[in-house]
Amino acid sequence: MPGNGIETEQSKAFYDMEENKNPQGAANEPKEEAKNLNFIEEIIEEDLKTGRHKSILTRFPPEPNGYLHIGHAKSICLNFGVAKKYGGKTNLRFDDTNPTKEDVEYVDSIKNDIRWLGFEWAEERYASDYFQQLYDWAEELIKKGLAYVDDQSLEQIRLNRGTVQKPGTPSPWRDRSVEENLQLFRDMRDGKFKEGEKVLRAKIDMAHPNMLFRDPIMYRINYAPHHRTGTKWCIYPMYDYAHGESDSIEGITHSICTLEFDVHRPLYDWFIEKLGIFPSHQYEFARLNLTYTVMSKRKLLELVKNNYVRGWDDPRMPTICGIRRRGYTPESIKMFAEKVGVAKRDNIIDLSLMEWCVREDLNARSNRYMAVLDPVELELEGWPEGQVDWVEAPMNPAFPDGPKRKIPFTGHVYIERADFMENPPKKYFRLQPGGEVRLKYGYIIKCKDIVKDGEGNITKIICTYDPSSKPGAGEWRSVKGTIHWVSIQHAKKLEVRLVDRLFTEQFMDQIPEGSDYKDFLNPHSMDIITAYAEPALLEDNSGIAVQFERTGYFFKDPDSTPELPVYNRTVTLKDTFKFK
């Protein structure tokens, strides 16, 4: 974006959507489809072509220490998508090597999210499945003189690691004998030391330019019970040691990670090489960064724990369960992931692109209903007392011959307060004194009078109506404005949550130094109002968000009761976002 030094990928795909549509008549013109591959697909095709791999096996390896967010959704779509494209499979592997932060709750939520996106894994694995094998390999590295037990504290290890310009200082216990290291490591395993008293480190190079190579920690002592292995183990492998070996055990051909792991790749390869095991290989792509969003698990956890939001599934949250509760569809998330693409360098994606994707999906599929969010009463002068007209309208105008719903029409209706203006500007085509509009699916009306309260607020609009203007009743004439409405007699009361961006700052990763990200929480990220809808809305069982005509897309919330249905705004009809 201009002036911020950050490039936003796929801006053309968002701001010029006509490129995504075929020109008129193009469907009848034969053309050769270009083979557009991302760099991961190019690597896979070359590996299959050269015979390096005969089949493809990827994996999605979340740590079960929180709920998945939209960034994980992109990774899920990539890992499962490329495997499916090339006839391969994808394993789900939980990186459960830190028992103090992990829980079965997160395991279950992750599986639910992946299935909601429409993917199924080949094997369900856990790093904890491999604890014995990882331990045995650690002993093997000790026997080769490539690992040692260190008595330094974590703080001493950090201080002695050096800097990019300065080599690290070797541990005074770096040259212990193989026999002593084996015995100490086994004593660590048997619970003979306190937490932090000893660690196992790889013996590589304390002057290596890659700081991760400066004798990285392989194992630490932790007496917290594990959600699967209980208290069987009191030592746990570190990520850099466990990840590559877990990939190798499973025979993962393409270990696809986000870009921040590129500096970890040489260490990933080092362990595999020194152990002489299946040569899985890691490939990195740019992680997803969204405007007006934070996706740090630490920050998201803080928002939940301190009640800034209503939980992990709060519809304002970027978690998969949050956007699902908001009304996003799996199809829209897959569309978004496809449009974002697979890049080799970090970028920031405009949140408006994700909103465009859900509009595109819902516009084609969602049912339509009329609902009034800010009601003012409109009375039709001369309407026969007690008369109810039942108007038939399509559930979706894209399918005029498809399912219909019946809407009750009476002489007292609600309209949106914004659809009337007492002193309108030029080219205002909604209702005004002396002006005409059509009530959608109904009559042309003309404003005759208004009623105000003692404070000057409009409480009622009185109109005449033209009986001959009823659609399908004969005479037809056109007016420039059409507004929606709901019969007051038949209106169903709703709680509507006007969900919006959680933060006011566009680039949350660039907030001023010293600022707290919570200072940028949007006070209007969820405004709760009372609205009124046509009765057919309450009979909708489509399972996806519906369109409130002329307003936006809304999704029924689990908080709904028979007495008070609750709807979350998924997205507005147009990108009209402005802070109040």
DSSP helical segment count: 13
Low-confidence stretches: 1-33
Annotation, overall tally of beta strands:
25
**Helix content range of the residues, please?**
10-25%
- Distance between the terminal alpha carbons, to the nearest Å? 23 Å
- Please identify the structural class as seen in this structure: alpha/beta
Q: In order across it, which strands form the biggest sheet?
A: 10-23-24-25-21-22-11
Biggest beta sheet summary: 7 strands, mixed
What fraction strand?
Answer: 15-25%
User: Rg from C-alpha positions?
Assistant: 31 Å
Identify the overall geometry: elongated
**Average of per-residue pLDDT values:** 92
Offer a concise description of the structure.
With 580 residues, the protein is of the alpha/beta class. It has 13 helices and 25 strands. The strands form six sheets. The protein has a seven-stranded mixed β-sheet.
Structural commentary:
- The protein has helices at 11-15, 39-50, 70-85, 104-116, 131-143, 154-160, 178-189, 239-250, 265-275, 297-305, 320-326, 330-340, 351-365; strands spanning 57-60, 89-94, 124-126, 147-150, 199-202, 217-221, 235-237, 255-258, 282-285, 368-369, 371-372, 375-380, 389-394, 404-409, 412-416, 436-439, 444-452, 458-466, 482-483, 486-487, 492-499, 526-533, 546-548, 552-556, 566-572.
- It has 580 residues and is an alpha/beta fold.
- A hairpin with a 3-residue loop joins β23 and β24 (552-556).
- It is elongated.
